[in-house]
Amino acid sequence: MGLPRGHLRSFSTAAVRLHRPPSGSISHEVKDKKEWQLELEQQIARGQLALARQVFDRIPAPDARVYNALIRAYSWRGPFHAAIDLYRSMLYFRVPPNKYTFPFVLKACSALADLRAGRTIHAHAAAAGLHTDLFVSAALIDLYIRRARFGPAANVFAKMPTRDVVAWNAMLAGYANHGMYHHAIAHFLDMQDRGGLRPNASTLVSLLPLLAQHEALFQGTSVHAYCLRAYLDQNEEQVLIGTALLDMYAKCKHLVYACRVFHGMPIRNEVTWSALIGGFVLCDRMTEAFNLFKDMLVEGLCFLSATSVASALRVCASLADLRMGTQLHALLAKSGIHADLTAGNSLLSMYAKAGLMNEAMMLFDETAIKDTISYGALLSGYVQNGKAEEAFLVFKKMQACNVQPDIATMVSLIPACSHLAALQHGRCSHGSVIIRGLALETSICNSLIDMYAKCGRIDLSRQVFDKMPARDIVSWNTMIAGYGIHGLGKEATTLFLGMKNQGFAPDDVTFICLIAACSHSGLVTEGKHWFDTMTHKYGILPRMEHYICMVDLLARGGFLDEAYQFIQSMPLKADVRVWGALLGACRIHKNIDLGKQVSRMIQKLGPEGTGNFVLLSNIFSAAGRFDEAAEVRIIQKVKGFKKSPGCSWIEINGSLHAFVGGDQSHPCSPDIYHELDNILVDIKKLGYQADTNFVLQDLEEEEKQKALLYHSEKLAIAFGVLSLNEDKTIFVTKNIRVCGDCHTAIKYMTLVRNRTIIVRDANRFHHCKNGQCSCGDFW
DNA sequence: GTAGGGTTAG
């Protein structure tokens, strides 16, 4: 039998090293070959592979049968490389491998995912004419499929003269593991039609997760029916099949069926419990998920696993139940599974979502093994807690440690640029996803659309949107919301109509975006129309968020009484945010009486956050009623609410420069103040008058003007004027709303410095040019 | 067979 040339040279060193003289604790008596062989088989049966090896080395001129016995033992549970080494020495000593050698050595290659060795052995088997053997072929298919080499696997499969269930299953498992839904289904049907075979438990255990992933409830139900007909749910593989079925129903969000399967199972294990708990988590039924977890512990501690704790921790994170979360942390530590990567990452994520970034960071530093998800959990934690700069540091650290960011990492990182309104950072991230080949991923594009919109470049948002190969509902909603914050209500409406034309069904969020867009553009009638359309045509039940938008729309448009009546007629009990929207409009329209009434309502509800106190205080101040304004601020202080300081920032050449009111900490402060004084002189010539109504403190008139002049957004703009060429747009971001005086001043500034100035505040964009603002003073 | 980080709204 001819073996391919060249194998001797590459295999010789390993083979020589392996053939050491015998040593160790086996008997040294003289035995004949048959007796040694018997002892070898005994050692293998006992699982004593080291001793088996010593026996093997005593056997004079071992034949293929002897080699096969040990190779088979190695390929069972490892060490896998020993199986391959032994195969090599077999070739070295010119012992021809046979049809019992190849399946086992190939299995070892498969376990090591060593495609190179596998290909060589494939060639050897072909040379020996054994590559179409049932078992050799099955092992080859498994090897190729594991490394996603579908072509070679299909080739092997096609060349088989007869195929058994194992071969069909190997191919199916490959398609299923790589998420190739259509291939898998076609193969599954082919198996029954052309192959004339009936699916067995392994077939269905491969197929069901794929059906689950694609939420193919109908096919899943047929598989379930087949299991019942074939009594597959009654043999020893019952737990596997049952769990796979349960999980399929859970992933299809059909918890009733999932529970029914669960209760019908005579035997359950930790995977079964985890699958069911995970199903409840998926359907956002958190309390029930947690109760199941508790039931599981009552039924048996043996079910406790890293996976089930991970699900339970997600429940704690979602319910913000930190007390339960820390208890689980202790449970993990006690049960000794705390070192598990998955469980560790869930813990990290729970602390991060709860805003305990110090705890999250400590946990992160303590863990020796970190993967992409660990970094992702920390990174998104920082972004969600408004610490965008820290998020960038995590990203840098990740790259320094050679941990590859994936789609989810980038989807978490890009909003950090939106928070900072840092266009340069955003563009770098965009470049980064292009380099990584992720630029056309739907979720990535969605976050890019949002980022560009919030960084003032709605044109780039639209570019990303137009180039997307596949859009989902989030893509459309994000684009509509983007037009909304830019005050482009008409464009938002056009896009909404385009969305419907392309067959996308709007959801509840779509209407929030759309009505908000109308509100920001003063399109009161249109907004009302879309609210009616939503309820009557699409049957979407309005949520509190929709009512907030509607009150905002009506009240901001000057229909304060209608807004008030609208709140009265709501089927839901209006919360602080609804009244807050009305109060905000009272301030714009300087309606003190209603403002007072509304603020009384808010105080009854117990104000959450500080915004409402500030608004009420502003309303009194604007009316010159400083005593009452001060009183509100005293109540605010007594109740322990802190006003978040106004802060503005501007990005110059990729660096961020932040300012608070009256800030003198910037190195260029003298120049900035000088420029601002000059601007004041110039804009006064055009008729600007400081509107001291917006100064909250009861100061002398001159001091009030100064307090106004050095508002943070004015400082940032002055710095922009100094740092950027005239043709560049000055883009400033403010964490709270721009005050009325600044708004007026900015419009004058565009004239005296001939600039385009965009200010993004907590509410919307102010795109100012030639003395006009895009919001039409409607903000 | 189960599990951990992600995008839109006010």
From TrEMBL:
Record-linked InterPro entries: DYW_dom, E_motif, PPR_At4g14850-like_plant, PPR_rpt, TPR-like_helical_dom_sf
One record GO biological process: RNA modification
A Pfam family annotated for this UniProt entry: PPR_2
Keyword Repeat: yes
Repeat among keywords: yes
PROSITE patterns: PPR (PS51375)
Sequence ranges assigned to domain DYW in this UniProt record: 687-779
PPR repeat feature ranges: 63-97, 164-198, 269-303, 371-405, 441-471, 472-506
Keywords, comma-separated and alphabetical: Repeat, Transit peptide
The organism's place on the tree of life at top rank: Eukaryota
GO function terms (MF aspect): RNA binding; zinc ion binding
The protein's name: DYW domain-containing protein
Lineage, uppermost ranks: Eukaryota, Viridiplantae, Streptophyta, Embryophyta, Tracheophyta
